[in-house]
Specification:
It contains five helices and seven strands. With 167 residues, it is α+β, with helices and mostly antiparallel strands. A five-stranded mixed sheet has the order 2-3-4-5-6. The chain has a two-stranded antiparallel sheet with strand order 1-7.
Length: 167
């Protein structure tokens, strides 16, 4: 089923999706994910996501989320932008906000429904945020900008000079 990832779904909608083992999938523009955008170099691009709904044996609603996005970070080594692939899968159990602490399930993480409603974009944004590297940087120093490479070369040069003067 194709549904909007930016639409609110009521508990009844969610139960219907779970009974049918329904799937919501689509694309979200990164620019619409306001909490995430503040952590990125650019808001260009989108995230592709798929949410598969089901009902656990204990009666709770469960969602399996898979997502992939190419985002642009600022390298913490050279301060230049670079593209990074974020992809993952998460299983969550949907719980009502007022009973969340009492309902904390074993296994999958609990995701609280706001006033009994679910907004898929919020879950997707949360998962993207927690999948981000703590200090984003190019994988290889050779991929960094010239300033970072010059600093490393200068540091290595002064360490080598200090080592030869000690002999």
């Amino acid at each position: 089923m194709s549904g909007s990832l930016h639409a609110w779904y009521s508990r009844r909608d969610l139960e219907s999706l779970a009974d049918r083992e329904g799937v919501l999938s689509g694309e979200l523009q990164l620019s619409k994910l306001t909490r995430l955008v503040g952590m990125l170099h650019s808001d260009a691009g989108s995230v592709g996501a798929s949410l598969r709904f089901g009902q656990r044996r204990d009666g709770r609603l469960e969602v399996e989320l898979t997502y992939t996005a190419a985002v642009e970070f600022t390298c913490q080594r050279c301060l230049e932008p670079f593209r990074h692939e974020l992809a993952g899968c998460a299983n969550v159990v949907l719980v009502d906000a007022e009973s969340a602490p009492a309902e904390a399930p074993e296994g999958p993480e609990a995701f609280e429904l706001a006033d009994g409603r679910f907004l898929p974009a919020e879950l997707i944004e949360d998962e993207l945020i927690v999948s981000m590297p703590l200090a984003p940087k190019h994988e290889r120093l050779a991929d960094c900008g010239s300033v970072a490479r010059s600093l490393v070369a200068a540091t290595e040069g002064s360490a080598a000079a200090a080592g030869s003067s000690e002999q």
